[in-house]
Amino acid sequence: xxxxxxxxxxxxxxxxxxxxxxxxxxxxxxxxxxxxxxxxxxxxxxxxxxxxxxxxxxxxxxxxxxxxxxxxxxxxxxxxxxxxxxxxxxxxxxxxxxxxxxxxxxxxxxxxxxxxxxxxxxxxxxxxxxxxxxxxxxxxxxxxxxxxxxxxxxxxxxxxxxxxxxxxxxxxxxxxxxxxxxxxxxxxxxxxxxxxxxxxxxxxxxxxxxxxxxxxxxxxxxxxxxxxxxxxxxxxxxxxxxxxxxxxxxxxxxxxxxxxxxxxxxxxxxxxxxxxxxxxxxxxxxxxxxxxxxxxxxxxxxxxxxxxxxxxxxxxxxxxxxxxxxxxxxxxxxxxxxxxxxxxxxxxxxxxxxxxxxxxxxxxxxxxxxxxxxxxxxxxxxxxxxxxxxxxxxxxxxxxxx
Length: 402
Fold this sequence. Notes:
Elements: H1 17-29, H2 44-56, E1 60-64, H3 67-77, E2 85-89, H4 95-102, E3 106-110, H5 120-130, E4 134-138, H6 147-157, E5 160-164, E6 172-173, E7 176-177, E8 184-188, E9 201-205, H7 208-217, H8 233-239, H9 252-263, H10 265-282, E10 290-291, E11 298-299, E12 304-308, H11 314-326, E13 332-333, H12 358-364, E14 367-371, H13 378-401
Parallel strand pairs: 2-3, 2-4, 4-5, 5-8
Antiparallel strand pairs: 1-9, 6-7, 6-11, 8-9, 10-12, 12-14, 13-14
Helix pairs in contact: 1-9, 2-9, 3-4, 3-7, 5-6, 7-8, 10-13, 11-13
């Protein structure tokens, strides 16, 4: 009889007591709006921006209402307007092409490899064929591509890179934090990301003029001097009268919740990676299952895990996913024809022009995804791997004998 896992794939850890105490202090004084400050007060949001800038090594940081808002603000700040073409991964989540479409631009999708990274050869081809001058690069599910080669390609072609780091807060490539090689780095603090405020996000950059635009866009009115991780006043003087207000500020309550979590991020990353390694090791040498290779230059955050079921029939994958669910293991399949929960595909986003990505189609056809909450113990992770391994074996055997 198969094992049964009884944990929850959506239950997060509680907010640290220090975050709860800080949030209660904000509620008690009532100054939730980031610009509503007492005399001499910096405010939770400005303090959080300073701390995130220090963590990443960025000159400037802006805390915003969501990761999706961060991407939209970055695109607008970089001058992307209606009708412009913007490149992005064929394998990503809907907020990425959604941010492109929301500014009136046209998403142009780039193939992904079987290791779930943007295909750099296809990127070079798409840059030349499309004429696009912006890449919104999605580090989808925490998989960093060869950032040195990517930046060489984009810099050589005059393409601005905006990094979507929703799944890579705390990750690095050759020691460089994710989000620090592009013009902007965009992050999310949504519940299932690496620090949790329900919704929220960050935007980082070293470019004073572009960050000044982003801060004005976020709804600073003329209160930009209350930002402490911001460019000097001279940068705002260039843009403050010509940049629209597209309000998307973070508030002091969410910032108060996030600051203790940010201080503990390194410990949390280590814990995620222990759990990832446990599941990944348990799936080693499973017939019919292909694990995703991780490059040595990448320091990852293993908050989710992916694997491939190469050349499996659709019915067999549906059977496998259902069997795992019956055993308490919740998996997502990115190959379904219709969107299910967050697992939509590039051909589901019909606000983008129809495009064909045969290599990506082949990858998504067998791609399975699973969250790894920190509420799981290492023993839980080992049990989950055993269940997946057993159910792959049962279904794969039926494929071979069919």
